[in-house]
């Protein structure tokens, strides 16, 4: 129903002149501390599941948020923890510096997106201790040799005037590394001119956020023909699940927004907290998580294939019941009528010495072709409305004329058992020739109509056989569904295993407001 009222145009259909991009996944090894902390998160999830902890003290939402922070940098759990050598911040700093150095001549620019650990102190990079991921990355880049004035936080531009000035510097290549969150540096950030790389330090909750991030660079008016998108993932942490979750959401959206699937219903995926079983599996390095993700994808594809197969079968059933029988009856009647028309045409064709058969127009018989042609044009000129007007007979066929408002032509119909139509022009003899050609083609068109009839009957028989067939991959789908159910059972994943998270602050405020309303005298 949505597609009946929506006209959707996406980037893949518009063919806009955008740069070619390459996705690069940078997988970093977790430190021993990170691995131990993920295991502790798993133990906490188990305690919550068993009801051993009060929800006000610990809950799945809290575990999920801590898991995301831990995957970004272990010092977000405690700033006194050591800087892991293989952290995402270090890997990102290495890539940024390499690209900065390789593109000195072009002054190519880069963007870094990170929604977690945004800077509270914009001068935190000048301190020795760890303050946040933004300042830590800036500190490392300066130590590597990038001038401080070529690195900027979007948070420094706290007014529209400052934003315009900052964006102008990035477009010119004066500022070559710009860091920010999706909210502050997403839609409306037009700095694509020299952008060559985008770095995702963390994964956003929504596919639209990742699209907005990448859209700052992969768009028109970028001087670079090839650009690069870096995704940083800490192995065996919540990172992998977050990207899988976003991928599933994007598949759901794409089914609707591109109409590349025949499915009539979509399953919404909007979980903002991991399930108990998924956290436990991540903590223990359980390979079932990967197997589950693979099976989810395969089952979805098979379900779509089955839905398409069933839609085609329903369509064929409708045709077998209604369309094909009606079309066969119509073609049989048409052929019979055309055959009778050829007999009558032969009977009433009585040409004079010039080969012209008499034409009756408005009650007068015209034996000469020239006179008949003139009278025919006179009948056309006397046409006062768009309604069909009966004007006479020719070679056994009744003749009517009408004005077609769509084609802007005068239509002449020749009627007997069947009806044949031609367009009239301004040439006297040409109109008579068109009428004769139309009548002579009746016998020539009968074989074509018989061929259509034979083809329709063949399609009917073929359709009857097709609707008896079962979905060829039904057994494979059943086996994969059973296997998926078994894995879900082992991971203890069910419909009640999720705790939902919207915007945390927003949800908290709404909950407090609802509780206030319940206690208010007016409510009572």
Describe the 3D structure.
The protein is an alpha/beta fold. It is 51% helix and 13% strand. It contains 16 helices and 12 strands. It has a 6-stranded parallel β-sheet, with helices on both faces. A 6-stranded antiparallel β-sheet has the order 8-7-9-10-11-12. α7 links the parallel β3 and β4 (177-180). α3 packs antiparallel against α4 (60-72) and α3 (32-49) runs antiparallel to α11. The longest helix is centred in the middle third of the chain and has 61 residues, at 288-348. The two termini are 42 Å apart. Mean pLDDT is 84; it is low at 259-274, 494-510 and 517-524.
- The proportion of residues forming helix, as a percent range, comes to 40-55%
- Unreliable stretches covering 5 or more consecutive residues: 259-274, 494-510, 517-524
Mean pLDDT: 84
Rg estimate, integer Å: 37 Å
- Biggest sheet: strands, sense, closure? 6 strands, parallel
Principal-axis shape equals elongated
Short description:
By secondary structure, this protein is α/β, with parallel strands linked by helices. 51% of the residues lie in helices and 13% in strands.
Structure characteristics:
6-stranded antiparallel β-sheet; 16 helices; alpha/beta; disordered C terminus; 12 strands; 524 residues
Chart the SSEs and their pairings.
Layout: H1 2-5, H2 11-14, E1 20-28, H3 32-49, H4 60-72, H5 88-102, E2 109-113, H6 133-144, E3 151-153, H7 160-172, E4 177-180, H8 182-185, E5 195-200, H9 207-215, E6 226-234, H10 238-257, H11 276-284, H12 288-348, E7 359-361, E8 364-366, H13 369-381, E9 389-394, E10 397-404, E11 409-415, E12 419-424, H14 428-466, H15 474-490, H16 504-519
Helix pairs in contact: 3-4, 3-11, 5-6, 12-14, 12-15, 13-14
């Amino acid at each position: 129903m949505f597609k009946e009222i929506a006209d959707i145009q996406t980037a893949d259909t518009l063919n806009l002149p955008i740069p070619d991009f390459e996705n690069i996944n940078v997988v970093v090894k977790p430190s021993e501390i990170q691995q131990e902390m993920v295991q502790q998160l798993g133990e906490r999830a188990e305690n919550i599941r068993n009801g051993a902890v009060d929800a006000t003290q610990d809950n799945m939402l809290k575990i999920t948020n801590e898991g995301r922070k831990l995957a970004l940098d272990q010092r977000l759990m405690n700033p006194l923890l050591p800087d892991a050598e293989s952290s995402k911040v270090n890997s990102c700093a290495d890539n940024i510096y390499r690209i900065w150095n390789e593109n000195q001549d072009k002054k190519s620019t880069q963007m870094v997106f990170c929604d977690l650990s945004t800077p509270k102190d914009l001068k935190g990079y000048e301190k020795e201790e760890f303050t946040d991921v933004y300042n830590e990355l800036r500190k490392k880049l300066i130590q590597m040799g990038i001038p401080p004035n070529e690195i900027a936080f979007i948070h420094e531009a706290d007014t529209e005037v400052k934003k315009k000035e900052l964006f102008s510097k990035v477009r010119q290549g004066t500022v070559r590394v710009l860091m920010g969150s999706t909210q502050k540096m997403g839609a409306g950030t037009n700095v694509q001119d020299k952008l060559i790389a985008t770095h995702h330090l963390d994964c956003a909750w929504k596919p639209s956020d990742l699209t907005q991030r990448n859209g700052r660079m992969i768009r028109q008016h970028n001087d670079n023909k090839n650009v690069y998108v870096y995704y940083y993932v800490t192995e065996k942490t919540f990172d992998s699940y977050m990207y899988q979750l976003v991928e599933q959401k994007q598949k759901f959206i794409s089914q609707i927004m591109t109409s590349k699937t025949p499915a009539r219903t979509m399953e919404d995926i909007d979980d903002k907290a991991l399930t108990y079983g998924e956290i436990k599996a991540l903590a223990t390095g359980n390979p079932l998580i990967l197997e589950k993700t693979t099976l989810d994808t395969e089952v979805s594809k098979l379900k779509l294939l089955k839905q398409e197969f069933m839609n085609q079968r329903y369509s064929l059933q409708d045709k077998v019941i209604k369309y094909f029988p009606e079309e066969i009856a119509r073609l049989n009647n048409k052929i019979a009528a055309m055959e009778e028309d050829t007999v009558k045409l032969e009977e009433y064709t009585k040409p004079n010495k010039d080969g012209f058969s008499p034409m009756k127009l408005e009650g007068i018989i015209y034996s000469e072709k020239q006179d008949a042609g003139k009278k025919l044009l006179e009948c056309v000129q006397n046409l006062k409305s768009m309604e069909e007007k009966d004007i006479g007979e020719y070679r056994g066929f009744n003749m009517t004329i009408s004005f077609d408002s769509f084609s802007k032509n005068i239509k002449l119909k020749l009627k007997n058992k069947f009806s044949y139509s031609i367009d009239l022009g301004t040439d006297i003899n040409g109109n008579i020739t068109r009428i004769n050609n139309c009548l002579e083609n009746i016998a020539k068109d009968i074989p074509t109509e018989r061929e259509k009839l034979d083809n329709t009957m063949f399609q009917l028989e073929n359709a009857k056989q097709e609707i008896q067939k079962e979905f060829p991959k039904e057994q494979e789908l059943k086996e994969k569904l059973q296997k998926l159910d078994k894995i879900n059972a082992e991971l203890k994943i069910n419909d009640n295993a999720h705790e939902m998270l919207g915007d945390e602050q927003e949800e908290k405020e709404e909950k407090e407001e609802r509780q206030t309303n319940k206690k208010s005298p007016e409510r009572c």
